[in-house]
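User: Run a structure prediction on this.
Assistant: Running it now.
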Amino acid sequence: MDAKPLEFLQAIIARMAANSTQMKTWNVGLTTAVIGFVAAHEGHPARAALFTLGPALAFWALDAYYLALERRFRELYTTAIRSGTPSYDLTPAPVTARLLLTCLLRPAVLFLHLPLLLLIAWVARA
């Protein structure tokens, strides 16, 4: 079997994992910066925290989307290994709403983003 398609898939899977990590990094950084800003200025903490809510939710959704894409590409990789025939078709199955919801609730995604959202909500109520 030609190994090049597998190398392509491995590179795509690695990129999806890196993108997922970057979403986590950006979410933690943004939330920390806003909480720090609110703590330093204490002018309108609720309003400042609410401005963070939208991006925090977007980063959570993007993190889940990259995880779902990674899963789809892993399925392609598994199929390519099992078939034994070279295929340069790198089109994954579509990301369904069910898969996206599953990925939103995976511990690797949920246990980072949910506490950040709870922290934002706590600061917003202050």
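The chain is about 85% helix and 0% strand.
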